[in-house]
């Protein structure tokens, strides 16, 4: 069987089923991975920030967590599925620079690193849509490579400290 390999970048989302392997590389961005075991549908998004500013054009459907989840919900509904039937995984939200390390020590909300904000947004979004959170690997000082196999829903993550 020929398995298609796809790499998604920030602001992208893939949803479907069949012989495909999806991967992405994350720093402070977050990937949400969804899997519906009964139907074999799944997907991954790679978002940059929790919410879309009202002043920014809507040209990257998965650049923001809120928009990515709305798109996942629409794609699931088109297949007569509900996100509440999916298992979810959250990866990323790392800190990559010395400045982010200092912000995490200071702890003030306005100084909170973007990776932490992204991870929090992902948890809140999955809970809002009723997704069963099966796994989370977020935070720390480093980056992650995430892979999803759309044939069977298997997902793996590799963490590299900086």
Plain-language structure description:
- Keywords: Chemotaxis, Hydrolase.
- One of its GO terms (biological process) is chemotaxis.
- It catalyses: L-glutaminyl-[protein] + H2O = L-glutamyl-[protein] + NH4(+).
- Probably deamidates glutamine residues to glutamate on methyl-accepting chemotaxis receptors (MCPs), playing an important role in chemotaxis.
- InterPro entries: CheD-like_sf (IPR038592), Chemorcpt_Glu_NH3ase_CheD (IPR005659), Cytotoxic_necrot_fac-like_cat (IPR011324).
- The chain has about 160 residues and is an alpha+beta fold.
- The protein has a single domain, classed as 60s Ribosomal Protein L30, Chain: A (2-Layer Sandwich), CATH 3.30.1330.
- The protein is built from 3 helices and 9 strands; from the N terminus they run βββββαβααβββ.
- The protein has helices at about 65-75, 100-105, 115-130; strands at about 5, 10-15, 20-25, 30-35, 40-45, 85-90, 130-140, 140-150, 155-160.
- The strands form 2 sheets. A 5-stranded mixed β-sheet has the order 2-5-4-6-7, with helices on one face.
- The chain is globular and about 40 Å long.
- The termini are far apart.
- The model has no long low-confidence stretch (mean pLDDT about 90).
Brief digest:
It catalyses: L-glutaminyl-[protein] + H2O = L-glutamyl-[protein] + NH4(+). The protein is α+β, with helices and mostly antiparallel strands and 162 residues long. Helix content is 23%, strand content 36%.
Number of strands: 9
What CATH architecture do you see? 2-Layer Sandwich
Which class best fits the helix and strand makeup? Answer: alpha+beta
The name of the CATH topology is 60s Ribosomal Protein L30, Chain: A
Amount of helix: 10-25%
Strand order of the biggest β-sheet: 2-5-4-6-7
Radius of gyration using CA atoms only: 15 Å
The share of residues in extended strands comes to: 35-45%
Please work out how many helical segments DSSP would assign: 3
End-to-end Cα distance: 37 Å
Helix/strand order, N-terminal first: EEEEEHEHHEEE
Average predicted confidence as pLDDT:
91
The low-pLDDT segments are none
* Main sheet summary: 5 strands, mixed
